[in-house]
Amino acid sequence: MSTDNLPGVPEEPIARLGMFGAGDSGDTSGYGRLVVRRPARPSAAKPYGGYFDELADALERAAGDVYEGMVERVVVDRDELTLHVARERLPEALRHLRDDPALRFELSLGVSGVHYPEETGAELRAVYHLCSITHNRRVRVEVSCPDADPHVPSTVSIYPTHDWHEREAYDFFGIVFDGHPALTRIEMPDDWEGHPQRKDYPLGGIPVEYRGATIPAPDQRRSYA
Amino acid sequence: MTAVHDGETAHAGQDDATEGRVYSVNGQDWDEVVQAVADSSEERLVINMGPQHPSTHGVLRLVLTLDGENVTEARVGIGYLHTGIEKNMEFRTWTQGVTFVTRMDYLSPIFNEAAYCMAVEKLLGITDRVPLRAQTIRVMMMELNRISSHLVAIATFGLELGATTPMLFGFRERELVLDLFEYITGLRMNMAYVRPGGVSVDLPAGAVDKIGEFLKIMPGRIKEMRKLLDENPAYTRRTKDVAYLDLTGCMALGITGPMLRAAGLPWDLRKSQPYSGYETYDFDVPTATSCDVYGRYLVRVAEMEESLKIIGQCLDRLSGSELKGRPVMIEDKKIGWPAQLALGPDGLGNSPDHIAHIMSSSMEALIHHFKLVTEGFRVPAGQAYVPVESPRGELGAHVVSDGGTRPFRVHFRDPSFTNLQAVPATCEGGMIADVIAAVASIDPVMGGVDR
């Protein structure tokens, strides 16, 4: 088949291949070769709208010259502001967000890890949700680190509430928070191997037999994902 | 079973006991342990409390270092109830996720469901299209749930301090709420009632009257509870000036909910960042300034009274002409769960009307039903964080989608998890008896802590 007349395909890595997860038998669905590409990487330009501009300007004022190297990307999506911060600048950024009178994000709602195996060089993410009680605002700070070097500076000294949250992100994703006072597992047993919330960690489970039929484990079933 | 051993019994071998002598307390052997400790020359005593202990609110483990009766160090061990709910959800559809999140914090299932569903709705961009009747039912159910959760908090707290009457009162009153839940959703707990786009089923006939009756009974019952505890000297002596944590401490440790409001800050997301139409209800945010266990109790009781106010307003709206008979699920055939449930002789199940509709009158309805139930809907890629004010504080659902039919990642910022970090701050330097009061006033639910 000639491919000359087909539209060009963007070079982003694929998110999913096929459908229904059928690997054991012939593809009767016709969707076996379906390629689902990763969604485009969003990025917002000024003006961000709402209080987001004021917030970004205040952070830029507080950070000064290093702002360029600190905030790598700004995303405004679904009325939420996300600041993608370079990991080496994270403690500095959070300190400004907490202490600057125009920012005053006194309350941190903790750290949440996410694993994007397709995003080479930025597979692991630590996501911080901050809330300002003074100004009644919210912001999300996201840092990434590669799988090969899963290190993010600890921010327990800035927000003591991150103590357990960072331990949880370490336990589930293997993100090492440098400078954490006692980075140990928190949910899994101390001698557990692997980090269960990572995408390359299997869900596990056994097939269940019911009235002669065998139902595979949830991650082995055919699915539309 | 002897209370003291020198390292030869099954509990700890010689090597395990290198830290010193090990005492195993099995109940009714207190005199022997006290005698043995008195005979020993050790000044420092490390007590392991839990994870199986009636006063630790579930499977919570506390490691307490004692100097006499003073706690010099308190360490918390969690993880005994970790069930991998967040991981499991990545292998189910968005709608199925509701049945998982409802099992996290099992004393406030409606809040888990609401936070998750509102996050999914935000990702779908349908927040404004969720029917008003569904929003009002959600608010009513959340407030009923707040009452039942606070009742358990106060009841178990009483029991842990050695008072059985508050426990009996609290659980008796909670039963009234659970009966309402059963009547409305079919289940007393873990009801998976709130769904993306609305709620699973409309209020059954008679529900409004039943809730009305509950609203008549409840103020008197709360008054009874207040009469029993508010000025009870045995109670106030165990709670006043115990487990002090001021506003600075709360902010640093990320504490929210009644603990924060007992430190004087009227921070309640229902008022400060309203959702589900909370800005249209008339209620107050109770606070206390004592920063202690007693203040947290007062805040909880006052919150129950405020919740009753909100429920009353919900009932007026639900039975008013504007909302009566209106839909409770989004009118978008590609998202809204198609089947309404109906109460049959054997319990809540598929509605015969719906089955007749899809099987004999509408081909499109059958297709939609089939696609939604087997495949589910797709959610545009992105992430959302939606916080709600649960009985224990800010419950946040951080939901990430990659554009598929299943969540890419769901993380719950459970208030119990964060608030438990306050145990060392509230217990160290106090008496060991106050540790129980301190932990109980945090009101942790281990299902939510460990998820």
From TrEMBL, chain A:
Localization per Swiss-Prot or TrEMBL: Cell membrane
Bilayer topology term: Peripheral membrane protein
Primary residence: membrane
Name of the protein: NADH-quinone oxidoreductase subunit C
Keyword Oxidoreductase: yes
Molecular functions per Gene Ontology: NADH dehydrogenase (quinone) (non-electrogenic) activity
Uppermost EC category: translocase
The keyword Cell membrane belongs to this UniProt entry's keyword annotation: yes
Family membership: Belongs to the complex I 30 kDa subunit family.
InterPro entries to which the protein is assigned, alphabetical: NADH_DH_suC (IPR010218), NADH_quin_OxRdtase_su_C/D-like (IPR037232), NADH_UbQ_OxRdtase_30kDa_su (IPR001268)
Pfam families xref list: Complex1_30kDa
Subunit and interaction comment: NDH-1 is composed of 14 different subunits. Subunits NuoB, C, D, E, F, and G constitute the peripheral sector of the complex.
Function of the protein: NDH-1 shuttles electrons from NADH, via FMN and iron-sulfur (Fe-S) centers, to quinones in the respiratory chain. The immediate electron acceptor for the enzyme in this species is believed to be a menaquinone. Couples the redox reaction to proton translocation (for every two electrons transferred, four hydrogen ions are translocated across the cytoplasmic membrane), and thus conserves the redox energy in a proton gradient.
Keywords: Cell membrane, Membrane, NAD, Oxidoreductase, Quinone, Translocase, Transport
Catalytic activity: a quinone + NADH + 5 H(+)(in) = a quinol + NAD(+) + 4 H(+)(out)
Location of the NADH:ubiquinone oxidoreductase 30kDa subunit domain: 83-205
SUPFAM superfamilies: Nqo5-like
EC number: 7.1.1.-
UniProtKB/TrEMBL annotation, chain B:
NADH-quinone oxidoreductase subunit D domain sequence ranges: 161-451
Keywords for this protein: Cell membrane, Membrane, NAD, Quinone, Translocase, Transport
Region Disordered, residue ranges: 1-20
Enzyme class: translocase
InterPro entries for the chain: NADH_Q_OxRdtase_suD (IPR001135), NADH_UbQ_OxRdtase_49kDa_CS (IPR014029), NDH1_su_D/H (IPR022885), NiFe-Hase_large (IPR029014)
UniProt superkingdom: Bacteria
Subcellular location: Cell membrane
Catalytically driven reaction(s): a quinone + NADH + 5 H(+)(in) = a quinol + NAD(+) + 4 H(+)(out)
Membrane topology: Peripheral membrane protein
UniProt-listed Enzyme Commission number(s): 7.1.1.-
Listed Gene3D superfamilies: Cytochrome-c3 Hydrogenase, chain B (1.10.645.10)
Functional summary from the UniProt entry: NDH-1 shuttles electrons from NADH, via FMN and iron-sulfur (Fe-S) centers, to quinones in the respiratory chain. The immediate electron acceptor for the enzyme in this species is believed to be a menaquinone. Couples the redox reaction to proton translocation (for every two electrons transferred, four hydrogen ions are translocated across the cytoplasmic membrane), and thus conserves the redox energy in a proton gradient.
Similarity-based family: Belongs to the complex I 49 kDa subunit family.
Subunit relationships: NDH-1 is composed of 14 different subunits. Subunits NuoB, C, D, E, F, and G constitute the peripheral sector of the complex.
Protein name: NADH-quinone oxidoreductase subunit D
Biological source species: Sphaerisporangium corydalis
